[in-house]
Amino acid sequence: MKIRKIVVSLILACSVIISLSMFVENRQLKRKNTILMENNQIANLSSVEGVEIKTVKGEEPEVENAEVCDGVLKDGFRIDLYENYDGFPSVPAYGPLCKLNAFGINQTKAAKIIGKKDEFFTRISIEGVVPTWVIEGENNSNIGYIENEIMYVLSECDVFITPEEDSKSVFKAYKGNSVTVTAEYKDWYFITMNYYMDSNSFSYGWIKKSDLGYYKEFDSNIELEVNVKKGSPIKIDGNDGVEIVKDSLTWGRIMEELENEYVLSLPGASVATVEKKYIEPFSDK
C-alpha cells in the first residue's frame, strides 16, 4: 500500500510540474507575440475592410476580425508611401519612399496592414522583389547620371535588367527605336523606351553603349521613329480627306520615303502619309 501511495503521489507531482511548465511556456509565447506586434511586425491582413482596429493611448493597436480581402487601396489617383507622418503636411526633402501602383498592389494582395497610427494614417508593408544587383553591386559612385539624353537603337539588341554580362534579358530593342538615356555604368546605358505598345512588358533596362547612336548616324531614315509636329495635316490610309494632328505626342515609324513625303506606321496598325516638313527626329544630334 505504501508503495502504491508513493507512485500515485509521484504521478500527481509530475502532472503539476507539466501543467506549470505549459503555463509558463504559454505566457512566454504570448509575451513574444506582444513584442512582435509592438515592433510593427506584419499582421496577416490585406484589407482595411472588415477589420476592426482598436487603438489605446500609449499602446500599439490591436487588430480583431482579421481576414484576407480583395484590394486594399483606392485607385485612380496618386498615392505616395512615406516612412512616417511626423511633421505632416510637410514632407521630407528626399520625397516619398515610393509611388504606389494601387492597381498592381490590389491585384497581388501585396500590401499588409500593420496598424492604424491615428485617424489619418495607417502603417502598411508591401513585399516585392528588386534586382539583386541594386543591393549587392558597387555603390552609386560608379554610376553616372545623364539628363534625359535622346538616342536611337542602331540595330536589334537585347535590353537587360542589370548592367552585367550574365544578366537577364527583359526585352528586345529594334533598329530605329527612340530611347531616353538617364544613367551610365561602365559599358552600359540605362534607357527608357520613348514609345512602346505592350503594357505587359518592360519598357526600361540596361543596354550596351555600342548599341546606341544618334539620328544623324543612320544612312537611311527607314525604320526610324519620328515625331509628327502638332498641327500637321496627315492622310491616313482608308480614310477620306486629311486629318490634323492635335497634339505633339503623335509619332510613327518611317516605312517608306517618297519625293516629298514619308509613309509612316502609326500606333494602332494604321498607316499615314505625311509631308517631310512636318516630320522631325526626337533628337537633332
Plain-language structure description:
The protein is an alpha+beta fold and 285 residues long. The protein folds into 3 domains: 52-126, no CATH class; 133-213, SH3 type barrels, CATH 2.30.30; 225-280, Roll (SH3 type barrels). The protein has 3 helices and 20 strands. The protein has helices at residues 2-38, 102-108, 133-136; strands at residues 52-54, 62-64, 80-81, 98-99, 111-116, 122-126, 144-153, 157-160, 169-173, 178-185, 188-193, 204-208, 212-213, 225-228, 233-236, 243-244, 251-257, 261-266, 270-275, 279-280. Strands 16-15-19-18-17-14-20 form a 7-stranded antiparallel beta sheet, with no helix packed on it. A 5-stranded antiparallel beta sheet has the order 12-11-10-7-13, with no helix packed on it. Strand 15 and strand 16 (243-244) form a beta hairpin. The longest helix has 37 residues, at 2-38. It is globular.
How are the secondary structure elements laid out?
Elements: H1 2-38, E1 52-54, E2 62-64, E3 80-81, E4 98-99, H2 102-108, E5 111-116, E6 122-126, H3 133-136, E7 144-153, E8 157-160, E9 169-173, E10 178-185, E11 188-193, E12 204-208, E13 212-213, E14 225-228, E15 233-236, E16 243-244, E17 251-257, E18 261-266, E19 270-275, E20 279-280
Antiparallel strand pairs: 1-2, 3-4, 5-6, 7-10, 7-13, 8-9, 10-11, 11-12, 14-17, 14-20, 15-16, 15-19, 17-18, 18-19
